[in-house]
Every structure is written in structure tokens, then in C-alpha cells.
Amino acid sequence: MKSILIIAFNDLNHDARVNRQINFLKDTYQVSVASFGHTPIQNINTISLKRVKPSLSDKLLGGIALLLRWHSLAYKIIYNQSQYLRLLSGKHYDLIIANDIETLPLALELSNGNKVLFDAHEYAPRHFEDKLMWRIFFSRFNQFLCREYLPKVDAMLTVGNGLANEYAKHFPVQPTVLTNANYYSPLVPTATDTRKIKLVHHGAANPSRQLELMIEAVNMLDDRFTLDLILLTPSIANKKTRNYLVKLKRLIESNSRIRIIPPVKSNEVISLIHQYDVGIFLLPPINFNYKNTLPNKLFDFVQARLAIVVGPTPEMASLVNEHDLGLVSSDFTAKSFGSTLGQLTHEKIDYFKSKSDAAARKLSAENNKLILNKIVADLIAE
Questions:
Q1: For residue 200, which of 365, 349, 85 has the smallest C-alpha distance?
Q2: Are residues 101 and 146 in contact, defined by beta-carbon separation less than 8 angstroms?
Q3: Mean pLDDT across the chain, nearest whole number?
Q4: What is the side-by-side strand order in the sheet with 307-310?
């Protein structure tokens, strides 16, 4: 049986995309996974990468290397390359899948000439371009990683057309789009209560996402509307991000119709949100990746058979309109989003739920499984 190593510098308990990679491939190949947190998928060889908190001297040296554009040295310091090489070397893999740009130099170093498939979850050169410190320290660094290592990959994936087109515009690659679609779920739409409209949003509690705009929008609505925010704060979150959740909790104190509830594992999301009526997401386009996002949650809403209301993010709006899944606000303000939500009636919601039901199989991960397995089989056959 051919062997595959999947590398991801994150906790797989909350990374649905990487877990789908594992599930897509595990029945055909011997899959090993190297990550900061073990996958919830059973009977997979997992290699635990220790997330090392950098010392003050490492931070100083890494910062100097970034400012002076000693990018190769900066990578070794910031991403612990020598330790991970020692841990992962010595075993043959027919294919390595690198998730996000920070794993790619390591994957290529380990490959020994064998195939490398790169999955770009974001557009790396403009990842956090809205943040001044990121632009100062990491913008040129990520551009260097892309220039240096993208030409060496054997195939490349990304999550949407906007990102694929931008990579192809600036680098010698032609990414295949593999969406963040969730698995097909054999649920049926629930009937909407004429007296209550239950809204839900799930995802990261990140200040840059400006979740307070959705809270403000719901505050404008009548008592039929409730909102549950299912929010995750990463264990490595900085103080500002942790304090953001505190800020949101204060914002909802005066409105009993809005709650913040704890997150669940990625494979439990669909069954949890199925009890709601409308999945919502308003994301101001403060950086390139936000402008071009096509996130997990949109596909989760479909599999949960919910109506959907989103802001005018191009690829999200296109999907909602193409399949008639719900409504799209005219702009990214709370006023516009609240006005759009206010157009919902239980009859409209039931109609949009039926459209989610009709689109669920087409917008499922099973179609992506065929795409990924074809790419992997072709690479290994070469």
C-alpha cells in the first residue's frame, strides 16, 4: 500500500478540511498525520508535533531575520524546522500533503524527490494584510515562501476561485479548487416556528471578523429573532483575541435573545446547528482572504438544511444566489444586514430550507473526494 504523510501546523480537533483529506484517502493509502493535535479519526498513525513557545532570544533573532529579509533563517527559527525534520525524517512516503504555506518548506525537505501536494487554505502573501505588524514582518516573508517553494510542488489545491486565480496570476501554478464542503448528511429540513426565527453563526472569535456587526443587526430585529453564536477561541490565541470574546459577552448582556455557546468538534457541528432555522455570516472584506472567502460554515449550513443570509462576499453570494439558498445583504453594514434579516418570514425560510435540501448532495464533500483521489492517484502513478 502506498504511503502518504499529511502535515498541518494546527489542532485537528478543529480543522475540518484536513480531517476530510484524511478520510478521503485512508481507505486507499497508508496515511500518517503530523500535527499539533491528534485527529479525531480512529486508527490513523499520528505524529505529534510539539508547539514550541519561542524564547525571547528566538523572538528577537526571528524578528531581525525577518526585517533583514534573511527569510530562510527566519523560517528555521519561527517554524522549528530542524526539530520537525529530526522527528519526521527516516521514513519513506510516496506523497506528502502540505497544508498552508508554513508547512511547505518542511514537506519539500522531507520528500526526497517524491511527490508533494500543496493545499493553500488562504492566499498567503496577503493573509493578514489588514494588520500593520504582519505587513512589516510577514508580508515579504510569505511572498518569499511562495516564490521559492510553489514552483517545486507537483500539484496544488485551494478553497475557491478567487484564491486560485490570484495564485495563478503571481506564481507559476494552476491550483485546483477543492471547496470546504462538508459530507452529505441525510437530514430533512425542520418546519419553522411562526413565532420564532432561530439564527445561528459558528466559527472563530477573531476581532478582525467584526462579529459585533451581526449582534448589532439582530438588536434591530423584533422579538421573533434569536441568535446563538457558537464561538471558538484557539488555545494559542493572544490576549487581544481572548479579550474579544469577553467584549462580545458584554455586548449581548442587555439582549436575552442573543447567546454565546461553547464550540463542539468539527464532526458534531451539523447535528448541532440542524435545530436552527437560518445560518448567518457577515464578514467585512478588510483583507484579500476575507474578500475571497468560501468557508466551511456556508457548506455546513447547507448540510444542516438551513436558510442562509450572508453579506455580499462574492463567492458566498454567488453560491447562495445560484442555488437560491437565502438572501444577500446589499453591503457589509449592520443596518443593511439587519434589514435583510428582517425580510425573512417563516414561509420564506421554509422555502430556502427546501432549496438547501435540494442542493445538499451537489454541495457535499463526496464530490471533492473524487477530485482529490484522482489527483493523488495520478501523482503517485507518475
A1: 349
A2: yes
A3: 94
A4: 258-261, 225-232, 197-204, 278-281, 307-310, 326-328
Helices marked H in the chain? 16-25, 56-67, 71-78, 81-88, 104-111, 132-137, 139-149, 161-170, 212-219, 239-251, 269-273, 288-291, 296-303, 314-323, 334-341, 346-359, 365-381
Q: Which CATH class is domain 3-181+365-381?
A: alpha beta
Same fold, 3-181+365-381 and 197-359: yes
CATH for 197-359 is: 3.40.50.2000
Quickly count: other Cβ atoms within 10 Å of residue 210's Cβ.
17
Strands 30-37, 3-11: pairing is parallel
Instruction: Work out whether strand 258-261 and strand 278-281 pair parallel, antiparallel, or are unpaired.
Output: unpaired
Are residues 196 and 316 in contact, defined by beta-carbon separation less than 8 angstroms? Answer: no
CA dist 335 and 332 (Å) reads 8
pLDDT tops 80 at residue 26? yes
pLDDT digits (tens, 9 = 90+) for 59-86: 899 999 999 999 999 999 999 888 899 9
Q: 311 φ, ψ to 5°?
A: -80, 175
Delimit the domains of the chain by residue range: 3-181+365-381, 197-359
